[in-house]
Amino acid sequence: MPENAKTAIVTRFAPSPTGYLHIGGARTALFNWLYARGRGGKFLLRIEDTDRERSTPEATAAILKGLTWLGLDWDGDVVSQFEGRERHAEVAREMMARGHAYKCFSTQDEIEAFREAARAEGRSTLFQSPWRDADPATHPDAPFVMRLKAPRTGETVIEDAVQGNVTIRNDQLDDMVCLRSDGTPTYMLAVVVDDHDMGVTHVIRGDDHLNNAARQIQVYRAMGWDVPVFAHIPLIHGPDGKKLSKRHGAVGLEEYQAMGYPASGMRNYLARLGWAHGDAEYFTDAEAREWFDLSGIGRAPARLDFKKLENICGQHIAATPDAALLPEIEAYLDAAGAKPLSQSQKEGLSRALYCVKDRAKTFPELIEKAHFVLSSRPFEPDEKAAKSLDPVSRGILKELTPHLQNASWERDMLETTVGTIAEAHGIGLGKIAGPLRAALAGRTVSPSVFDMMLVIGREETIARLKDVTA
C-alpha cells in the first residue's frame, strides 16, 4: 500500500506495561500520532499486556500519564491485548482449518534433542516439527502447541517505508508457535490479529521489530488479510553512539517532566530525533503535523543531544502564552515533588512570566529567575549579590529611595529616575543596577531591575530597598 493511498489512515502505539515509558517508546508514539493527525486519521492505543507476570496496572497508568503529559491524545478506548485472547485463539483455529497451521505434540526435550543433533551435523537449528504434515488420525491424546505452517521455500519481502525492501529467506524462519499448550495465544499472533481487527493501516515501530515483521506477514497472508504499511524506525542512541541506557541519563519519559522540560519542547525535539524536514529545527505542533512523513525518517540511529533539547525547549518556553505556561509549571512542580505554589505566588508569577521566560531553557531555570517574586522579604542576598551591597552602594540606594516613592510607576520614568541618580554620582546605569538587583532579588542574575520593579510594585520595591539601607 503506497504511503499516499487514499485509505483512511489508522496508526497505533502498542507498549508493554512492564515498566516506565522509555523515551524511545514516546518517540514511536509521537511519530504514529503525527502521521495520523496530519492526515485526518486515527491514532489508537493498545496495551500489550499478555505477559501477565510482568504486566502491572502501575506501569499501564504510567504509560497513560506520560502520553497525556506529552499531549498525545488517542482515539477511542484503550485496548487490552490480554482481553482479546479468545479472539486470537479463534484466528489460530481458523488458520488450522484453512491448512495454514497445525498441532505440534513435540516436547521441549524432543525439540532440544533435534537442535543438538542439528548442531552436531552442522545443519540449521531451526526446529522442523515432525507433526507438520501428520495425519490427524495419528495425533496422540497429549498436550500440543499450534504452529503456523510457514512456507519453507522462497522469500518473504518486507516492503518497509523506512528501511526499503528487506528480503528474508523462508528457510530462515521456523514454524512459529501461535497457541501455547495451555491454549493462550503468543504475542506474535496477537499483534497481527489486533492490528487487523483495529483497522491499522500503518505499523510504525522500532526497527528491533523488523525481523518480527517477516513472520507476521505470513500470518496476514495465511488469513488473506491486507498487509499494513510497515515503517521500522531506528533506535535512539546516547551521545556516545551506543544504545541508550540509564548511564546516559534520563531514559524514562516521566523523568523529563520532573526535570522541567516543557511538553511542547519535548514533542519538537523527539520529532526531530531521527526525522527531518529540510533544515527546520524549531517548529510548532501544527507545522509538525503538516510536515511529518515517513520519507523524512533516516535509517541511521538518532543520537540524544541534551544541548539541542534544552535549546529547543527554551524557544518553546519563550513562545508559550503566559496563561498556558503557568499550569505547565505547576504540573512540573508536582512531578518533581516540589512544594506547590501559593495563591499569591501564582499571581506574582503570572505577572512576572513575561520577563522570566525568555532564555529559560527549563522550568527550574525559569523559577530561579522568578525568585524575586516567589520569595518574600527580607531577602538574604547570596554571596555574589552581597558583594555589590558595599557601604557606597547602600548610600546610593538610600538616596534613590525617596525619588522612587514620588516617581510615576512606568518603565520610562523609572529608568529616568535611576539614571538621574547614577549621573549625579558620575557612574553608569550598570553600576547602580548591580546593588539594586541585589536588593530586589538577592541574586546577581535576574530579569531587568525595571521589570522587577514593575512586577512587584512601588510599595514592595521601597520596602526591599529599606531592608538593605536601614
Task: Describe this protein's structure.
The protein has helices spanning 23-37, 57-70, 85-97, 108-121, 187-197, 210-223, 253-258, 263-272, 285-291, 306-319, 322-335, 343-356, 363-369, 371-374, 383-387, 391-406, 411-424, 429-441, 449-469; strands at 10-13, 42-47, 79-80, 101-104, 145-148, 155-160, 164-169, 177-179, 202-206, 229-233, 236-237, 302-303. The chain is mostly helical and 470 residues long. The protein folds into four domains: 1-76 and 234-317, Rossmann fold, CATH 3.40.50.620; 90-179, Glutamyl-tRNA Synthetase, Domain 3 (Glutamyl-tRNA Synthetase, domain 3), CATH 3.90.800.10; 320-374; 383-469, Orthogonal Bundle (Arc Repressor Mutant, subunit A), CATH 1.10.10. The protein has a three-stranded parallel sheet with strand order 1-2-3. A three-stranded antiparallel sheet has the order 4-5-8. Strands 6-7 form a two-stranded antiparallel ribbon. The chain is elongated and about 110 Å long. The termini are far apart. The relative contact order is 0.09.
Describe the structure using short key phrases.
470 residues, Rossmann fold, Glutamyl-tRNA Synthetase, domain 3, three-stranded parallel β-sheet, disordered N terminus
| Helix proportion range | 40-55%
The end-to-end distance, rounded to whole angstroms, is 79 Å
Uncertain stretches: 1-5
Average pLDDT value? Answer: 94
Strand numbers in spatial order across the main sheet: 1-2-3
- SS strand fraction: 5-15%
Per CATH, what is the topology of the largest domain? Answer: Rossmann fold
Integer tally of domains: 4
**What class do helices, strands and sheet pairing give?**
mainly alpha
Give me the CATH architecture of the largest domain, please.
3-Layer(aba) Sandwich
